[in-house]
Design goal:
Length: about 250
């Protein structure tokens, strides 16, 4: 009987010991998995100030690059993505002008449109800079997590009306200086003369408004391109702060 009790006690002890070992191993496995997760490259913690400063820096880099690209000779004219074409609502004027042998006049006219846009783009930098200064923390995180083009959309909301106000007088000044109307008149005159025979409507679009609208649209296109470059390409993150903020986002 004593031997039986001893054997039973031994079996119970072994079972309890085995349970302890199993529990210990399970705990070790859980802890091990947790530590594996912690050993993965962690995103560096970002303060609100770093987020805002990083985004302001990114926007500053993007707008400066965009203005520098667009506000020089051929900045619009030789860039097929933003080049100002003949006004779309006057496309039939262009077609008729070419038919009348005025191709050179059409080319001169389109070149002048783009020269006006290039000159107007110089007005954008201080307007963009002011919008960046007024960025809030909420704006910053919305932009950071908003995906491609989020910063550009922020700038559009903050600056579009101001850009129009600043661009239009500049465009008028430039189109007057380069005598855009003189380049336009032979084309539109020929067309309107033809409409007297065909019975079509005369056309004479507001060229200054057209250039202003297209210049702003082209400028925002370039700003978004620069923004997305910083988001996606580590090489474009030219400062430590940009690397930290946007590196955190892409991890």
């Amino acid at each position: 009987m004593n031997n039986y009790k001893l054997a039973l006690l031994t079996l119970v002890s072994i079972s309890l010991f085995s349970c302890d070992v199993i529990n210990q191993q399970a705990n070790q496995l859980v802890n091990s998995n947790s530590s594996i997760g912690n050993n993965e490259p962690n995103k560096p913690s970002l303060s609100n100030q770093e987020v805002i400063s990083g985004l302001k820096e990114a926007l500053s880099v993007g707008i400066k690059n965009s203005v520098n690209i667009t506000s020089v000779t051929d900045g619009f004219l030789k860039n097929q993505s933003i080049r100002l074409p003949f006004p779309s609502d006057a496309q039939k004027v262009k077609d008729k002008a070419i038919e009348f042998g005025l191709s050179n006049k059409v080319d001169e006219f389109e070149t002048t449109l783009n020269r006006a846009a290039e000159e107007a783009a110089k007005e954008a930098l201080p307007i963009f800079t002011e919008a960046i200064k007024n960025m809030t923390v909420q704006d910053g995180f919305a932009i950071l997590n908003g995906g491609d083009g989020a910063a550009t959309r922020f700038l559009k909301e903050q600056t579009s009306s101001k850009l129009s106000e600043a661009f239009l007088p500049k465009v008028k000044q430039v189109t007057s200086r380069v005598k855009l109307t003189e380049k336009w008149n032979p084309i539109i005159t020929k067309y309107n003369q033809a409409t007297m025979l065909t019975g079509g409507d005369k056309i004479n679009p507001d060229l200054d408004a057209y250039v202003t609208e297209k210049a702003i649209k082209g400028l925002f296109y370039m700003v978004e391109k620069e923004e997305n470059k910083i988001r996606k390409d580590p090489i474009a993150r030219v400062t430590d702060l940009l690397q930290k903020v946007f590196g955190n986002l892409s991890n």
